[in-house]
Design goal:
Elements: E1 13-16, E2 19-22, H1 28-45, E3 50-53, E4 69-72, E5 89-96, H2 100-113, E6 118-123, E7 128-136, E8 139-146, E9 151-152, E10 162-163, H3 165-168
Parallel strand pairs: 5-6
Antiparallel strand pairs: 1-2, 3-4, 4-5, 6-7, 7-8, 9-10
């Protein structure tokens, strides 16, 4: 679409259920949390997963959300030949400040509807990590909350331990 002149090179959009959705600008707190989480994941996952930061996931037939971070099953070609799909996602993370309601209502339903096993929403306004697990019929059956004094681990790679004080204190 950029080549066709529909979008310019600086447009921040993602494809959700056939619609181009403007993405909110990234502020310094959001950017910092994404950077800290990416660094923590890269250090801890080793060869168990690929850390995929602010890149699209293919959710057929008509969505390509761009979560802040995804931990993906390793791929021989690093997903050069095709984008990862919901089956490749071990953990998906959305960092939310101004997009909190959109992430909870629209994106969470999209992820659950495609069977993404675990989604974390880093709720910056309330300084809480919302952990969603067990997708069923377009919703998550389990929601857990963690605060800055807690440690969180994804189900798929339980050896990964995220000290939430690095993201939620302040």
């Amino acid at each position: 679409m950029g080549r066709a002149g529909i979008l310019d090179a600086n447009s921040r959009v993602e494809l959700i259920e056939g619609e181009l959705i403007d993405m909110a600008p990234i502020g310094s707190l959001h950017a910092s949390v994404v950077a800290v989480l990416s660094m923590l994941f890269v250090r801890q996952v080793g060869d168990a997963a690929l850390v995929w930061t602010q890149n699209p996931i293919s959710v057929p037939p008509d969505s390509e959300p761009q979560p802040d971070i995804s931990l993906l099953r390793p791929s021989r070609d690093g997903y050069r030949s095709s984008l990862p799909t919901a089956d490749d996602v071990l953990l998906l993370v959305e960092v939310a400040d101004t997009t909190l309601q959109y992430d909870r209502m629209v994106k969470l339903a999209l992820y659950a509807g495609h069977g993404i096993r675990e989604v974390w929403i880093v709720n910056l306004p309330d300084r809480v990590l919302e952990m969603y697990r067990e997708p069923e019929n377009g919703a998550y059956r389990m929601k857990l909350e963690r605060v800055a004094t807690d440690i969180a681990s994804p189900l798929a790679i339980s050896a990964v331990r995220v000290d939430l004080s690095e993201m939620l204190s302040g």
